[in-house]
Model the fold of this input.
Amino acid sequence: MAKTVEQTNLIRLNKYLADHGIASRRKADEMIDEGLVQVNGRTVYELGVKIDPDKDKVKVKGKLVMAKPQLVYFVFNKPKNVVTSTADPQGRPVVLDYFKKVKKRIFPVGRLDWDTEGLLLMTNDGDFANEIAHPSSKVPKTYHAKLDGIPNDEKLQKLTKGVSIVGGKVKALKVKKLSSRGSDKKAWIEITITEGKNRQVKKMFEKIGFSVVKLKRVSIGSLKLAGLKPGDYRPMTQKDLENLFK
Ligand code: URA
Done:
C-alpha cells in the first residue's frame, strides 16, 4: 500500500474498485468498512486510503481484482415483484436473474421498489452509476403512477410547488394527468422528478392524500423504455450514453 506522497500514480481504493466494476464508489466504501477488501494481504478499513494500481494487489472477499473490464451498459425493463439488487438474502427474484447471459459483474444504477416496474439501468461502470445516482446530477426521471382516486389540479400543483417528505423537501419538475388511460375512478398521472429519494413518488402522492397503486418508470433523461417488455433488456448505444445527460 502506498505510504509516500511523492508517488504520482495513486488512486483512491474506492475509485479503483469502481473502475474495475466491483461496485459504485459508495458501495465500495461500505465493502471497505465491512472488512471485505485487502491490499497486499492486509485488510483495509480506512476509507480514504490510496493505492498504486501498478504495484498493489487488491482482493475483494479473497478474490484478486483483475484488469479493468470492458464497460457495459444496459437499459432494462424491470418487472414488478423483483428486488433491485444483485442478490437477496430472502431468496426473492432479483434483477440480476435476468442477465444470466451477461458474464460481467453488473449491478443496478439506483433502485426501483419491489412493486415498481420500468426503466432501470444496469452496468459495471461504478463512476457512471455514481454520476447518475448523485443528487447533483439532477437527471429527470419520469414515472406513470396509477392512484387510488382522482386528484384535482390544485392538489397536483402542490407537487410542482414542493412538498416535505421524510428525507427533505422535494418538488416535481412536471406533473400531468394522462386522462386517456384506465378507469375513471383511478387517475394515471405522469410525474417527472430530479431527486432520487427513497420511495419518493409514492411519498409525494401520499402527501396530497393518494396512494399509488401502480408505478412504472418510463424514462431517465432522454432514454425511454420504448417497446421493451418487462424482463427484456437491450445494450445502451453510444448515442444513448452521449444524450443521457442532455
Ligand atoms: N418512487 C417510488 O416511490 N418508488 C420507486 O420505485 C421509484 C420512485
In short: DSSP finds six helices and 17 strands in the chain. Residues 112-113, 116, 199-202, 215 surround uracil (CB under 6 Å). Helices lie at 13-19, 25-33, 126-133, 153-161, 200-207, 238-243.
